[in-house]
Amino acid sequence: MSQSAFLATMIVIASFLAMEAIAWSAHKYIMHGFGWAWHRDHHEPHDGFLERNDFYAVFGAAISIGAFSVGSPLVMGVQAWWPGTWIGLGVLAYGVVYTLIHDGLVHQRWFRYVPRGGYAKRLVQAHKLHHATIGKEGGVSFGFVIARDPVVLKRELAEQRKAGVAVIREAEGV
């Protein structure tokens, strides 16, 4: 592998990992903050296939498209910044994985599969615990690809309930 191919690969991986941190922050501080009006229907029963929450995917796509554009000589000419293409690819890869895991595996919007073990089961459990709260206050597991131990998350939810920070759905057994 050439040095430039290695560097491009590292930029894609770093961009993918950075997107998990960006998604976690956006989920906790925007979606469960001032952007709750768009995210609320994702936490409540609703009719229909699409959710207002799906508008957030447009922001992820805009980040990827913007990075691809900045890296493209067709768009930027000689001002193109070559890492932009690889950053855009990392963001795109994150969006695909997010869609498959969050919308597909966890919420079963695209396919039906219930994992019986391994990391896929842990992802589902962690995100189900995220949905254990009623309303935007409190909560655990704001990431989408990195899932913490469900036992620890249950303990944190119980502490939030006891402290009056979060209201927990009774069916969750927290």
Tell me what the structure shows.
- The chain has 174 residues and is mainly alpha-helical.
- It is elongated.
- The mean pLDDT is 93.
- Helix 1 crosses helix 2 and helix 6 runs parallel beside helix 7 (150-163).
- The protein is built from 7 helices and 2 strands.
- The protein has a two-stranded antiparallel ribbon.
Q: Tally the helices: what do you get?
A: 7
Q: Taking Cα atoms only, what radius of gyration do you get, to the nearest Å?
A: 18 Å
Q: Per DSSP, what share of the residues sits in E-state strands of 2 or more residues?
A: under 5%
Total number of beta strands: 2
Element order, helices and strands?
Answer: HHHHHHEHE
Low-confidence stretches: none
* Percent helix range: 55-70%
Structural classification: mainly alpha
Gap between N and C termini: 50 Å
Q: Characterize the largest beta sheet: strand count, sense, and whether it forms a barrel.
A: 2 strands, antiparallel
Shape: elongated
On the 0 to 100 scale, the average pLDDT is: 93
Strand order in the largest sheet: 1-2
Quick description:
The protein is an all-alpha fold and 174 residues long.
Question: Which SSEs are present, and which pair or pack?
Answer:
Layout: H1 3-34, H2 36-43, H3 55-71, H4 73-76, H5 83-106, H6 118-130, E1 133-134, H7 150-163, E2 167-168
Antiparallel strand pairs: 1-2
Helix pairs in contact: 1-2, 1-5, 3-5, 5-6, 6-7
